[in-house]
Amino acid sequence: MKLLSKYKVGLLVGIAMFCSIIFSCKKILNPDIIELPTAENAFSSAADVDKAIAAAYSFLRKVVPDKVFLMGDVRADVFNSYSDNVNVRVETPIPQNTAVALLNNGGGDWNGFYTVIAQCNLILSNIPKISSYDGESKKRHIGEASFIRALTYFYLVRFWGDVPLNLDPVNIENLARTPQDEVIKQILADLDVAIANLSMNYADGDKAVRAAKGAAWAIKAHVLAWQHKYADCEKYCDSVITKGPYSLVPSTDLQKIFIGKSNEGIFELNFDVNAREVQKNRVYNRTLGKPWYKDQSDGGAGTDKFIMSPTRDNINIMFPKDLNDDRIPVWFVYSTYLQGVESDRVFLGKYRTLQMNGDTSTQNINESNIIITRLADIILLRAEALASSEVGNAAEATIMLNKVRERANARLYTGDGNIQDTILLERKKELLGEGQYFFDLVRTRKLDKESRIKQADWYETGAWLLPISQTIIAKSNFVITQNEYWK
Q: What is the 3 state secondary structure string of the chain?
């Protein structure tokens, strides 16, 4: 896939002349579109649209886990290698926030996100052309495509700030970067379309892995929090909590959250080996060693020295030794210590659901779902909104915070310490490894306190943004410009 490079759009439309124009053009925000019906029968029925939406989910599943773990967890210095200079892997320097480290780990490449967007644009432009369409199916498809596009643009904005905004299925002009405030307006508009068209529940097989109304509410709450519109954010969080079909799973069933489709799941990326939805060398292989992964998939010739994990000091800050917390034995695998000087390392245990424990013949064995948002996330986001200066309801914020702590049989918050800092720490503890924490630090303007990014003016000058690949900039004939901090 080459964004802003030669068109390789394939069968977007069944018009040969138009395709010939596309293939010869160097201006594009449309990478390849695959897994679609052929041009002869494209989008002639709801079933065709359903297949195209399945492809959009597939594209999302391909790009999000890798990017969000590296730039949402590792960049926040939550996960790191044993050392900065011993037994290192390519991801190790990411927390140092250098251009080389970020670019070497895909931090400058937004192509995968635009693949998802191009697919959604194609779907939304073709739905009105279908003459025979069941009303409920049509609403659902419009809602899902709008939701996926909104979520994808939200990732783009949080990673790169100003990004090209394209809503057309085919675009033959280079597009400059659109101010992020305008992109967010479109994100909110898409989410409103999703909210208006999606139902609260669908078939059990689609639970949490296909967008429903509650997922659109939850992502809209996050967008509003990103804008610091906490009063509105709190209302959408409350809708998810009180009107949605979600409930916190008991502490005895925490692992079921990551197996997927639990009562707590709001939206997640499905991984099912029977549907060939598997990943290799992504979040799973980076955070689990033997007996789960024994080959070179860990980036280090099968040795656990190369695993990315929180340090013991970091774990002890989140979960002090003298305090009970039922999340500890699920979040972490303490039974497998690395030998010798690495003996202080532990594995992230959330994503240890395997088709067959110890299967090393394929390594494509992990069936844990990647969580985008779940009820605990939204409860804590509501706590953050309630505790904000705009809302100023610390008492209700405490109730929300303690809902999550009570589920874990952890010590309840009774007013000891700053409540906003306490909620932020609780999000770090609860959502560890789910790609949230760097975004949390940017949103709360506390990045300089928790990460290695120490510039006094880190936000104003854009140290929190990712650089843009020079290849993308050059392919655009320099219509795309670099983020100011990385010039």
A: CCCCCCCCCCCCCCCHHHHHHHHCCCCCCCCCCCCCCCCCCCCCCHHHHHHHHHHHHHHHHHHHHHHHHHHHHHCCCCCECCCCCCCCCCCCCHHHCCHHHHHHCCCCCCHHHHHHHHHHHHHHHHHHHCCCCCHHHHHHHHHHHHHHHHHHHHHHHHHHCCECCCCCCCCCCCCCCECHHHHHHHHHHHHHHHHHHCCCCCCHHHCCCCCCHHHHHHHHHHHHHHCCCHHHHHHHHHHHHHHCCCCCCCHHHCHHHHHCCCCCEEEEECCCHHHCCCCCCCHHHHHCCCCCCCCHHHCCCCCHHHCCECCHHHHHHHCCCCCCCCCHHHHEECCCCCCHHHCCCCEECCCCCECCCCCCCCCCCECCCEEEEEHHHHHHHHHHHHHCCCCCCHHHHHHHHHHHHHHCCCCCCCCCCCHHHHHHHHHHHHCCCCCCHHHHHHHCCCHHHHCCCCCCCCCCCCCCCCCCCHHHHHHCCCCCCCCHHHC
What burial class does residue 63 get, using C-beta atoms within 10 Å of its C-beta: 0-12 exposed, 13-18 middle, 19+ buried?
buried
Q: What percent of the chain lies above the pLDDT cut of 90?
A: 61
Whole-number Å distance between alpha carbons of 70 and 114: 19
Tokens of 225: 């929090």
Cis before 291 (ω within 30): yes
pLDDT mean over 390-398: 97
* Residue 14, pLDDT above cutoff 70: no
Cα within 13 Å of Cα(214), Cβ side: 28
- Which of these ranges, 18-22, 116-120, 330-334, has the smallest mean pLDDT? 18-22
∠ CA 483-484-487, rounded to 5°: 90
Tokens of 232: 């509105």
With contact defined as beta carbons under 8 Å apart, do 61 and 270 qualify?
Answer: yes
Cβ neighbours for 4, distance < 8 A, ≥ 6 positions apart: 27, 28, 29, 174, 472, 475, 476, 480
In angstroms, the CA 63 to CA 271 distance is: 14
Q: What is the domain partition of the chain in residue ranges? A: 271-368
Cα 461–chain centre separation: 25
